[in-house]
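Input sequence (1101 aa), recorded before submission:
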Amino acid sequence: MIKYIGYLLVFSIVIIGCSEDNADSRVYPDDTSKVQFLEEIPSSVSGITFNNRIKEDPAINVITFDGMLQGAGVAVLDADNDGLMDIYFASNMEGDKLYRNKGDFKFEDVSAKSGINPMNWSTGVAVVDINNDGFDDIYVCKFLYDDASKRENVFYINNGDGTFTNKAKEMGLNDNGYGIMANFFDYDNDGDLDVYLANQPPNSLAEKTRLKGKVDYSFTDRLYKNNNGKFVDVTDFSGITNYAYSLSATAFDFNQDGLTDIYVACDYDEPDILYKNNGNGTFKNITDSSLKHMSNFSMGVDIADINNDGHLDVYVADMVAEDNYRQKTNMSGMNPEKFFALARNGYHYQYMFNAMQLNNGDETFSEIAQLSGISNTDWSWSPLFVDFDQDGLKDLVVTNGLIKEMRNKDFQIWRKKLFEERKKKAKNPNQKNLGIDPLEISKKAPTQKIANFIYKNEGGLNFSKQTNTWGLGTPTWSQGAAYADFDNDGDLDMIINNMSMEASLYKNTANEKLINNYLSINLEGSPNNKKGINARIEVSAGGSTQAIEMTPYRGYMSSCQTMVHFGLGKDKSVDQLKVIWPDNKVTDLSDIKANQTLVVKYSEASSGNNKKSGSKGIFRALPNNNLVHIENEYNDYKREILLPYKTSTLGPIMAQGDVNNDGFTDIYLGGSAGNKAQLLAGINDKQFQSINAFPAIDAGFEDGGAVFFDFDNDNDLDLYVCSGGSEYKEGTTGYLDRLYINNGKGAFTKSNLLPNIKVSTSTVVPFDYDGDGDLDLFVGGRQQPGKYGRKVNSFLLENNGERYVDVTKVKAPFFENYGMVTDGKVADINGDGKLELITVGEWMPIQIYSSSKDGLKEITENFNLKNTKGWWNAIEIADVDGDNDLDIIAGNLGHNIKYKASVDKPFKLFVDDFDKNGSNDVYLGYYEGDKCYPVRGRQCSSQQMPFVSDKFKSYSDFGSAEITDVLDGLITDQTVLQEAQTFSNSIFINKGKSFEQVVLPGEAQISPVYGIAVDDFDKDGKTDIFLAGNMYNREVETTRSDAGKGCLVTMDDSGNFVVSRNEKTGVSADKDVRDVALIKSKNQSLLVIANNNDAMQIYTY
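Predicted structure, token format:
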């Protein structure tokens, strides 16, 4: 029985269209990836023969109009109110078409008799009942031509008798910008629907040449306010004036404040824009504060709550290929100088990958497309989130295809050569007309159909590709796409607008096959917003809540059905359904049977306050009193072009201790080359003051590691500092470590008690390896400056009572050429009462050593720690599972990066002077299938090693080359070969005689981990682990690691690890985190976060 809340009446719920079925007859496959859900309906059955055919001629062609291959949209609507969804196709060159749904996936072309006139270049199609008469109207954007009269947008108003009349002019919406798409929404909360128009600057070669280097705001996007059916341009007043190649505009309430915001996806150099609705008729561009990075050539956008956390996430399609060959042949190498110049000048950090912007719930997003496995879908246009398998998680489909691959590198070389040849033949060197036929050039461009992509949402922020299995494997050139329930069976089908091919129609067979349960909802909105556009619907079932904001304007240039569909998986009923209408009124229902379609009416809603309220986190931020790390400027890539990241930016590091015995903990904050380190003196339980405690001359060092310890057994804390970085020449005094002696009052004197070791080091671990009562040291070598990837010496330093002596060769000879050490800890890992040394590093495994007066002995094999080579950054030792032995918490690179590693398919590194020019050549390799290919392309590979372009004359040849083909005959005994087998942030559980690696959930793989802190932070009696890290300074063809916000990991009663993100923790560790520390006193506990080139963050708990 349905229970009603508020004033809802029984007739506000109507079962329509679909026959009821018994949930008990449903099947619940454990793995829906083996089911074909989509059945392609041929045109011979459907009657849909629409073809967005493109024909070039000497005047209109892809050379003179490079936007002519952007395609067109498709929209679904019930044009005649017969309960069946009809289809409107936009056509670029041959006239739009309206198809009437006759049922059973059969359609009839009714364009001519409906009044749909073939006119000009159509792009986006938006369906809306703008006059609230109960009939769907159609708004069509116009594009391409420089003749403004051919670009007037069209508004087909439904006459209610099967015909339409264009009333755009009389309504004030005959906008003649270079129109792409319209999005109707109520931006001012006055109850009616306004409209945002995504426009572009001129597209013709002539106009682009005229405007080169200029900004002309007459080509801005437009916002029109609805004044009783007449629309008024409020672009300037609202604050959305821009100049960009907008390709989509998506309206949604991203921060749940009851106001609808706008995400604009922009092509080329202009960055995407997130407009926050201020609630007073204006918007604020908050892109810089909300997004850490974004796509470069942004196309279509869709919004969905991909992880059912209640926050709407944003997916943006770009154009990077999935496979190695197309990546290497169709994508240009990114120019580092241009990249950083654009970033410095307000164009943000843009990468040629799809972006999956995960909503953090605090008006920021973390980009996780690489983690989710949905970053590379070729030349993509329309993304749509649809729960095809009805398991309660939104799946993803992405259309793609470019009929002429104008960015193919070999084609571009041919084109450039053609122009150069024609110039030479020209009698007049200044002759502008070279007699080149644009069609001659266009015909030479490569062309290849690619199948559209479809991904199953696996949960945990992960997606798996199911293109062939789920039935979307037909190669096409596809752009606009929309979903709708064409057969009224409760699941969502799909229609796709293809270029120079017939449209594709797909039937979803999920309900035909009775796979999982569902609930579909139609809204009857307010008098001036009949469909309830931008209402939020929340469905709770089985302990999980899904949320959808109802807008039909999704993907690319297209409009979907307004019916909202929820997959329910095994749940046979919905515990609660909540509709939050745009004016914040609420409809609440409960105990609703699955497998039906409901109508929910605004007229039965009650008042409510649904603005998001902030939750109190475990941690609370404190002011940091301007405690800032400053990074020095240094271009690592000038010396090593193919470096994966800037090795000069590995700081700051921290050390902590009460150096003056005043009862307050002090912090050593490491400096960078040219910027001195700071001693942060604790002045109470919460505050620190920077004091000048070290010689000014030592500001020249780059600090790689540090520790407070009592070197001389005088009951105060001395300080050892590792000299790291890569700015100085190898083997110079800039890499001498330092030992500072404490006078007992917190004043330090630099000693001369260390051996003369000139190695860039990263970590120092005090421990009494020989049992003589004083503290010896393990010092980890981090890198050879200018020689990335080459192994470096680490050291065992023995305290002889007066100074430190290097005993490595005798007591720990295996530390010679040991590797690239990042961290080390000592602990009684095997419970024998003695301390073992545990080390990790980049391209290194986890290794364990026992100690005695005779020296160190490796005992790693005793713990079954096999195949652990990774890019480890940090470790901590703690009893994670409460079984009274010590486990290893290990911070790695994480999964949110294009690099992938496994035991069977490791990530590889080849290092040598391959071109014999005296420089260190770094060459990374990755697996695609069973072949290992170079990570970097022909262009940048040739910059580092010029022989590459000589050896591979074409990009096609290079695209087929494995890394061993590139380096054929050059790999010798002197070549350094490294590999990584895992990039997973992990916990190694101590099983007594061995360790078992447990890969942490996806939420803990969002970023690399550089800092680890362990405590019972929430005071529930369980061990919690705080993880944080980012790496902003990656090479520009790899998205920078900036998605981390910090997270808390706890083991639940079932032995599974649960991850809590920033909304629960209250920590926003979203800067370039390098280290974390815990500081405890009687009255206060602090979490301190050190960030590269930024302020420290301090939280109390």
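Checked by second reader. Confidence is low (pLDDT under 50) at residues 1-19.
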